Amino acid sequence: MAAHPAGPTPTPGKPRKAALAAWIGSALEYYDFFIYGTAAALVFGKIFFPTSSPATGTLLALATFGVGYLARPVGAVVLGHVGDRFGRKRVLVFTLLLMGFSTFLIGCLPTYDDIGVAAPVLLVITRLLQGLSAAGEQAGANSMSLEHAPDDRRAYYTSFTLSGTQAGQILATAVFLPIAVLPQEDLLSWGWRLPFWLSAIVVVVGFVIRRKLDETPVFEQEIAGRAPTKLPITILFRDHWADVLRVVAAAVIASVSTIFTVYALSYAVNSAGLDRTPMLWVGVLANVVALAAIPLWARLADRVGRKPVFIGGSLGCAVLMFAYLGAISSADYTLVFLVGILLFGVVYSATNAVWPSFYGEMFTAEVRLSGMAIGTQIGFAVAGFTPSIAAAIAGDKSANWVGVAVFTAVLCLVNVVAVATGRETYRTPTAELGVRAPSAPAGVASRGAEG
Fold first, then answer.
1. What residues contact residue 317 under an 8 Å CB cut-off, 6+ apart?
2. 10 Å Cβ neighbour count for 20?
3. Model confidence over 140-166: pLDDT tens digits?
């Protein structure tokens, strides 16, 4: 594949506008996505699977959380195709509308006591719709912000997508704080529905923001003077298959997030006997810290490279998960808060700060959204089921948290290997990202792409 000509210099102010739109849109959309995880950990086992034992009901509820990730690879193929052929903006508007619609529907669902087994079936269907939406959200927002950014600040500007995701988690957890203190009867009858109904506001606000986005100059140059590629995915798997596989393996680092936000919350409340409200506050405070930590880690990655920051964060998560689950088992709230904030607010933020740029920089503009979407969503699909796998590992014995920590650490090491064997791209000009010499074997980068 021949090198593309140098891309246009981003218009002053456009990187900030794109980053802000990515931040706000991701915050609003992932509010929808994460309130499901909180509800699955605290409520859904009781109202959608009441005939099961408490442990089995929790396991089934967590499995429905993972179902949303099953739809994400399918959505990645479809939305990646649309984004690479017709533009990033269309994907960002569509994903927001679909997420808001499906989340609102969840809040309207009848429970098992109302319609029997049809209730969990409908729950799974709406969760699948959420997964389809989320498949294109981050890849679209990352592509948009990366392609607007100056060459030497790509990690910083793309990190705003993940900062927005953290803000969405804050909103999703915070909205449950007053609801979690409701009497059990009110919580299980109507209280849990309120966060889902609030998605109507999410749709309106997000649509107004994203419909005003400009398409990226990198994408516009890519399609100028040539017929649109009918199937970008064929080019992706012909020229970038090794990078897609690397993104898949690296993206399993998202398991740290799902274990922390879903399994650990369920374990703390349902097995270790900790109160709901303090555990929800751990998530809120950790995400507040992450809002500050992510752009700082991203600035460091723009100076020293993507790989050192990414790998350091992954190794730190592998170690600290032992400390966090151990703190929960000891029922020491002070230790739970300190370790939880350090793990999720500081150390995990290093990986979140880097992956939006690191993954996107593996691909050319022609296939960037498809490559990021397909690679990440397959990896995220694995991460989506880690809470249910962790619950199966732990069983009914709270002492089995060690096995869950070992399981999480192994997934972190998979990420480390994938990142360590990838190319360092922080010094590569945007126009040369993903470009390979015509004679280079698959998986061997051109001189320009090595950075």
1. 253, 256, 343, 347, 348, 351, 408, 412
2. 15
3. 888 888 888 888 899 999 999 888 888
Burial class (CB in 10 A: 0-12, 13-18, 19+), 330: exposed
Provide the 3-class DSSP secondary structure of residue 440: coil
**Residue 99 near residue 32, CB atoms below 8 Å:** yes
Instruction: Round to whole Å and give the CA distance between 288 and 405.
Output: 24
Distance, first Cα to last Cα, the chain: 18
Output the CA torsion sign for 340, 346, 349, 354: negative
Nearest residue to 379 (alpha-carbon basis) of 257, 252, 256, 253: 252
Report angle CA 425, 429, 434 to the nearest 5 degrees.
Answer: 60
Q: In the chain, how long is the greatest CA-to-CA distance?
A: 68
Q: What is the pLDDT of residue 204?
A: 81
Q: In the chain, what percentage of residues exceed pLDDT 90?
A: 31
Q: Residues 6 or more apart from 424 whose CB is under 8 A from it?
A: 305, 306, 307, 450, 451
Q: What is the model's pLDDT at position 169?
A: 79
Residue 242 CB-density burial (10 A; 0-12 exposed, 13-18 middle, 19+ buried): middle
> How far, in whole angstroms, is CA 348 from its chain's centroid?
12
Q: How many CB atoms lie within 10 A of CB 114?
A: 10
